[in-house]
């Protein structure tokens, strides 16, 4: 919980949430003293050593396991050239047949009215991605089945997969290329293919269900008409900036032309997803339909475009204000000034991708010919060669791998989740659980306490409704899944008899937590998993077999961060006796809740607070050496931290920071906590200087 609100505030913008971790070579040169910088570097090295020690646990995600088990001295195999990159990852050799001529596409279907239906579909993948192999095969398919076929009057691009349209480009094709400059001709070939498609001079319709992201949306932007479903799974976006890249298949040019410069910059600089209603309103799509009607409406629209009964899509008409901003020199100067100001604020100038995106759009507005696409692909290759992009792609890959658990154990089937404690933490856990379709039991000591928890959830859902992020139907459905209970509810034991997972979020008291386990074990089935949300107490102590705890193997730690609906991280902590099934169950539920699950060893501080402890210790040393607080914060933000340590302590409370630091100092971190003077924090607590909560600190 220590990072909670302070980190949340620092991650307010979409860019800031994604673009973190970039180190600056300027740390310690002019901002802090040489002694201080040496001390800080030493702390960082000890922190790295700390992380290496405690992550060696028997339960790893596949990514973590690979990192731990791979010998450091083993050289990496050279990456394949672009033409072979996708082939390396192909799992099943493809053999063409009359029933299936192409690996990445189903056979082209031609309707009696002359509508060619092209369905993306790679049977070896859960989702369609725009890979080098797909683009090569698309050219082959186009020449063989489309270009010379005079019976084709219009074309519909859609997906045969329920999982979505195209989830984006295959970033591992990009990362496998050692010389990034060779990406320029590869992208040029793809762009020439899109132009070649247009030269057929027949209307093209993109029929989108599910994600159309990155290269998938760029493909749709080359079409004459875009239709998407109103499904919650449907989302459109250009998230390349989150990988340190830019849209390279014409996106920086085609999107502003369609939705206006301001709307396009907002999409590309944040990488955010656009939902169907918003996409229709801003002109990104022309029509929104029910999923069941998508293909039939797309075919009917394609016929209408061919015979003239349906007009081709046109850019959304700009309002007078937007014309003044986007189409006049004074307005453009003001717009670009504000855009740069926002990017500077959100990135600290550390990430080149947003600036390259701005440059590409400005260049395209000044150079309306084909040169703008050349400038774009050169910018893409330049960004692909940066260490920032390499790091962000690695972060994306790691996050993706963290969704998998290396253990082969099957989680139990969870239908009902009980949450003990209806405070902000417990209510937040109940909220994200109910939103994902679980039946939820929310229990506290009395009706007033549980009522406050229910009000917290209802208020959050009502805010989502006002912001059009949730419908009233969804609000009512979520509310109906939550059953409020208290110690005075006579039927609470009967309700708990059907619980598959119990998550406690009560005070940090070992005796209390063990007492709750005893109560829960008396009324729940044998398979029920018990998860404790402790932030500091060892899971082994909570789960120790004894009079209170009989099913120790079912106990696991699930440490959420506050506010739970906003904070993505979830630490999952098995003790030595936790069963693989209990761990797999906690992991599966956490994933479904939308959390980034990290499985860590049962050691003091777990992961986050264990990393933070040595930093807090070094902060006290730097402060005692006379380093100004604002310069210390600035140095650490310049280093890449999302928020400075002084601001962090001020927000979470000096008392909390002191308690955590002293706890870790007395634990097993040894010299890693010995560099500072923690009495500085203790003295502040004695004087009542607790930070923002007391307006002193």
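^ structure tokens above, recovered residues below v
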């Amino acid at each position: 919980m220590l990072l909670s609100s302070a980190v949340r505030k620092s991650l307010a913008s979409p860019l800031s949430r994604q673009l973190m971790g970039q180190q600056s070579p300027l740390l310690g040169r002019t901002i802090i003293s040489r002694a201080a910088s040496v001390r800080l570097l030493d702390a960082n090295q000890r922190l790295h050593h700390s992380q290496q020690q405690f992550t060696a646990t028997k339960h790893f995600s596949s990514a973590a396991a690979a990192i731990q088990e791979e010998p450091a001295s083993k050289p990496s195999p050279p990456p394949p050239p672009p033409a072979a990159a996708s082939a390396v990852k192909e799992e099943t050799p493809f053999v063409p047949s009359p029933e299936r001529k192409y690996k990445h596409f189903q056979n082209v279907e031609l309707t009696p009215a002359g509508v060619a239906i092209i369905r993306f579909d790679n049977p070896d993948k859960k989702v369609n991605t725009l890979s080098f192999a797909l683009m090569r095969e698309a050219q082959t398919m186009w020449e063989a089945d489309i270009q010379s076929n005079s019976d084709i009057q219009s074309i519909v691009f859609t997906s045969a997969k329920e999982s979505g349209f195209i989830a984006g480009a295959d970033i591992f094709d990009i990362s496998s290329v050692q010389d990034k400059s060779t990406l320029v001709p590869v992208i040029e070939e793809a762009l020439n293919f899109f132009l070649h498609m247009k030269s057929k001079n027949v209307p093209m319709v993109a029929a989108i269900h599910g994600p159309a992201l990155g290269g998938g949306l760029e493909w749709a932007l080359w079409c004459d008409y875009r239709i998407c479903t109103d499904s919650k799974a449907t989302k459109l976006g250009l998230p390349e900036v989150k990988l340190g890249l830019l849209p390279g298949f014409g996106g920086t040019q085609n999107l502003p032309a369609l939705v206006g410069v301001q709307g396009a910059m907002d999409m590309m600089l944040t990488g955010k997803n656009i939902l169907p209603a918003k996409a229709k309103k801003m002109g990104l799509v022309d029509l929104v339909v029910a999923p069941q009607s998508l293909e039939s409406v797309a075919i009917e629209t394609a016929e209408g475009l061919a015979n003239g009964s349906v007009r081709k899509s046109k850019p959304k008409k700009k309002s007078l204000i937007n014309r003044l901003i986007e189409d006049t020199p004074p307005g453009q100067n003001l717009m670009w000034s504000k855009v740069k100001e926002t990017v500077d604020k959100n990135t600290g100038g550390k990430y080149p991708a947003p600036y390259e995106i701005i440059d590409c759009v400005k260049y395209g507005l000044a150079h309306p010919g084909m040169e703008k696409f050349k400038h774009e692909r050169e910018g893409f290759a330049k960004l692909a060669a940066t260490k920032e992009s390499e790091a962000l792609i690695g972060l994306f890959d790691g996050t993706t791998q963290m969704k998998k658990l290396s253990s082969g154990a099957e989680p139990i089937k969870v239908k009902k989740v009980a949450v003990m404690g209806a405070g902000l933490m417990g209510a937040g856990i109940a909220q994200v659980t109910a939103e994902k379709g679980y039946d939820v039991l929310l229990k506290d000591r009395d009706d007033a306490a549980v009522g406050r928890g229910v009000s917290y959830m209802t208020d959050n859902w009502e805010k989502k409704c006002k912001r059009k992020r949730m419908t009233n139907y969804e609000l009512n459905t979520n509310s109906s899944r939550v059953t409020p209970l208290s110690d005075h509810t006579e039927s609470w034991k009967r309700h708990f008899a059907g619980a598959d997972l119990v998550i406690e979020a009560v005070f940090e008291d070992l005796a209390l937590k063990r007492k709750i386990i005893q109560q829960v074990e008396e009324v729940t089935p044998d398979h029920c998993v018990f998860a404790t949300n402790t932030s500091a107490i060892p899971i082994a102590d909570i789960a120790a077999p004894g009079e209170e705890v009989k099913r120790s193997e079912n106990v696991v730690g699930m440490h959420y961060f506050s506010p739970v609906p906003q904070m993505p991280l979830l630490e999952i902590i098995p003790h030595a006796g936790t069963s693989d099934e209990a761990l797999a169950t906690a992991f599966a539920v956490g994933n479904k809740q939308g959390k980034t699950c990290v499985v860590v060893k049962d050691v003091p501080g777990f992961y986050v607070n264990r990393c933070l402890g040595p930093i807090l210790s070094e902060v006290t040393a730097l402060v005692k050496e006379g380093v100004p607080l604002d310069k210390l914060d600035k140095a650490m933000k310049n280093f890449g931290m999302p928020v400075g340590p002084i601001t962090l302590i001020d927000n979470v409370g000096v008392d909390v920071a002191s308690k955590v630091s002293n706890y870790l100092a007395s634990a097993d971190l040894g010299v890693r906590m010995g560099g500072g003077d923690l009495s500085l924090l203790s003295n502040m607590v004695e004087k009542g200087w607790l930070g923002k909560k007391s307006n002193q600190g």
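Residues 1-90 have pLDDT under 50 and may be disordered.
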